[in-house]
Amino acid sequence: MEILIVNKKLLSLLTRNFASGIALYPFILLEDKAQLADSTLLNHERIHLRQQLELGIIPFYLIYLSHYLLLRAKGLSAINAYYANVFEVEAYAQEKNREYLQSRPFWACFRKVKLPK
Is residue 88 classed as helix, strand or coil in its secondary structure? Predict the structure, then answer.
């Protein structure tokens, strides 16, 4: 089970004001209390927690950062590299599907991955 934390300053420090939430196993860090009722955001972050459990926490972050940097090296902007990251692709595609985590295939984030040319 995740631990929800609302701390705008810490979130801002970790994401440089980019994200309104972040998953750092076993925590989901949110910007404000209203987000505690945002089931789409919470589901998105729970998908990231599952990804972190599957890969291991440190390997998850190393792969996440490596993929992001690879996308940047291929010429994508920071925002486009973020959205094209395999972990974000899965989380955004399934964030509205409340049943997804009950039937999610193992390592689903690596299935049908297409890197930009």
Answer: helix
Residue 56's domain comprises 3-109
Digit-coded pLDDT (tens) for 16-58: 988 999 999 999 999 999 999 999 999 999 999 999 999 999 9
Instruction: Please indicate, yes or no, if residue 115 is contained in any of the structural domains.
Output: no
39-55 helix and 86-94 helix, angle to the nearest 10 degrees? 140
Q: What is the pTM of this model?
A: 0.91
Residue 114 lies in a domain: no
Number of domains into which the chain is organized:
1
CA 28/CA 34 separation, integer angstroms: 14
Which conformational region is residue 5 in: left (phi greater than 0), alpha (psi within -120 to 50 degrees), or beta? Answer: beta
| Within a domain: 117 | no
Band (pLDDT 50/70/90 cuts) for residue 111 is: confident
Answer yes or no: is 44 within a domain: yes
